[in-house]
């Protein structure tokens, strides 16, 4: 089965079909997200805080993303796989193009995402010029922020809203096939969605986007720490893990695990033969 292309994603906006996007960082979860029918799987730099225990996304390296994205790519048959370009990997056009090519060659991603608006438009143009599709990311951009508030909404005042709109125009002009809008005031997100002809995918930016993106760990209930207000939670995987591992620990301690179905024994005649041989040897 061929994976969805950036054109397929753009066509979804034209046909009015909402786009679902989620992060995944490893083989089994990417396999399951793909089977569940999500259209875009993002190997986000959120792998840092969510999986690797880093304090923020700025510590994530290109090697981190490539390792995780390669695992995701091996699992995914239908969804479009996007690899996040980590902090410090696209500060100059030639560096950005070389690193984007590495992501495609070594991790098998279908496109790359990078954060920023007008200031990265030239870099976006270089990467798309090298034949690699780029997804933009504006509004709140964690790689550039030291803002530690839980829900740092952007575009709540007229000036900032206009800045974000101008960033969106610049990215489209530079050739992005889609834009993530993170924590943008909902009316601003709606206006951008109406203004640009590429899909606008929101996170914490209200219902008027062409699609939505969330971090997998929030959706399935596996976040370490408090669940954020902008995310949905449709499962309790943390609870399931605690239940299962606690039960395993208690069964080991009580001698209830392994169960007979978990191991094999010799048949009785073979066992006797074995004891005879070993016993004889012992006596000898
Ligand atoms: O890294 C990530 O998870 C992201 C999403 C929040 C869009 O960039």
Describe the structure.
The chain has 284 residues and is α/β, with parallel strands linked by helices. The chain is 45% helix and 13% strand. It has eleven helices and eight strands. It has an eight-stranded parallel beta barrel, surrounded by seven helices. α2 crosses α4 and α7 runs parallel beside α8 (186-195). The radius of gyration is 24 Å and the shape is elongated. The chain starts with 5 loop residues before the first helix and ends with a helix. The relative contact order is 0.11.
Task: Compute the CA-based radius of gyration.
Answer: 24 Å
Q: Taking all residues together, what is the mean pLDDT?
A: 96
Give a short account of the largest sheet: 8 strands, parallel, barrel
SSE string: HEHEHHEHEHEHEHEEHHH
How many alpha or pi helices? 11
The third-level CATH topology of the largest domain is TIM Barrel
Q: What's the number of domains?
A: 2
Read across the widest sheet, the strand sequence of neighbours is: 1-2-3-4-5-6-7-8
Give the termini distance in whole angstroms: 65 Å
CATH superfamily of the largest domain: Phosphoenolpyruvate-binding domains
Helix/strand structural class: alpha/beta
Helix content: 40-55%
Number of DSSP strand runs = 8
Second rung of CATH, namely the architecture of the largest domain: Alpha-Beta Barrel
Strand content: 5-15%
As residue ranges, the low-confidence spans are: none
Q: How does the SSE layout of this entry go?
A:
Blueprint: H1 6-15, E1 19-23, H2 27-35, E2 40-43, H3 47-52, H4 62-75, E3 80-84, H5 93-107, E4 111-113, H6 121-129, E5 133-139, H7 158-174, E6 178-182, H8 186-195, E7 200-203, E8 211-214, H9 216-220, H10 237-253, H11 268-283
The structure holds 3-methyl-2-oxobutanoic acid.
Residues 23, 42, 44-46, 84, 137, 180, 182, 203, 213, 215 line the site of 3-methyl-2-oxobutanoic acid (KIV).
């Amino acid at each position: 089965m061929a994976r969805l292309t950036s054109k397929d994603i753009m066509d979804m906006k034209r046909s009015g079909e909402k786009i679902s996007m989620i992060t995944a960082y490893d083989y089994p979860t990417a396999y399951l997200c793909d089977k569940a029918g999500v259209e875009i799987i993002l190997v986000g730099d959120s792998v840092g805080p969510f999986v690797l225990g880093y304090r923020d996304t700025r510590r994530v390296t290109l090697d981190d993303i490539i390792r995780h994205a390669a695992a995701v790519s091996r699992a995914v048959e239908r969804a479009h796989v996007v690899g996040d370009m980590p902090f410090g990997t696209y500060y100059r056009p030639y560096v950005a193009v070389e690193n984007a090519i590495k992501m495609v060659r070594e991790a098998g991603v279908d496109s790359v995402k990078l954060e920023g608006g007008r200031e990265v438009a030239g870099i976006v143009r270089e990467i798309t010029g090298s034949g690699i599709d780029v997804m933009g990311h504006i509004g709140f951009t964690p790689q550039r922020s030291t803002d530690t508030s839980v829900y740092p909404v952007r575009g709540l005042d007229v000036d900032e809203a206009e800045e974000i709109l101008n960033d969106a125009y610049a990215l489209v002009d530079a050739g992005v096939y889609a834009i993530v809008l993170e924590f943008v005031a909902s009316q601003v997100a709606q206006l951008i969605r109406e203004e640009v002809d590429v899909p606008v995918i929101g996170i914490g930016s209200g219902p008027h986007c062409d699609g939505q993106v969330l971090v997998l760990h929030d959706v399935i209930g596996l976040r370490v720490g408090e669940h954020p207000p902008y995310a949905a939670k449709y499962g309790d995987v943390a609870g399931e893990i605690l239940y299962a591992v606690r039960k395993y620990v208690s069964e080991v301690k009580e001698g209830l695990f392994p169960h007979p179905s978990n191991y094999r024994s010799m048949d009785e005649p073979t066992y006797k033969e074995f004891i005879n041989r070993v016993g004889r040897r012992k006596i000898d």
